[in-house]
Amino acid sequence: MVKLKLVAAFAYSGDQQIEVIEPRDNLDTIYNSYLKENPQGDLQHVAVWVEDIDSKLAELADANMSHEVKQRYGDDHAYIDSVEYPGIMIQLMAHNPIIDELFDIIREASDNWDGKKDPIRKIDWSTGRLVVQPYDG
User: Fold this and answer.
1) Can you give the residue ranges of every domain in the chain?
2) What's the whole-model pTM score?
3) Helix (H, G, I), strand (E, B), or coil: what is residue 34?
4) Residue 2: CB partners within 8 Å, gap ≥ 6?
């Protein structure tokens, strides 16, 4: 399994999650590929929740929706792009306890931010569980 090196910042505006990703490696990923073509950055993907990635991909194929899986992370994430109208990718996301916990932490922090305290936190995954720590740069 390849481990990506990246920094991701998340926030919420109402129910809309906003994510900014900064790759910190030179691996052949959708993030680095996108930045080669769009060095200034921009909207790279929009995420949608699905019950099951494989089922959703099969449903798209059965409906003759021409798409290409550009990158996949196990059973939890798949980035797809239209073959006929490529551009902004769709990230299919399946719920799992760790991702749900992460997004709950982010939403709660966004909802309760007083506009003054430093909102940046580090999420440490090294134990296999989420540990929220102050960000040290």
Assistant:
1) 97-137
2) 0.85
3) helix
4) 27
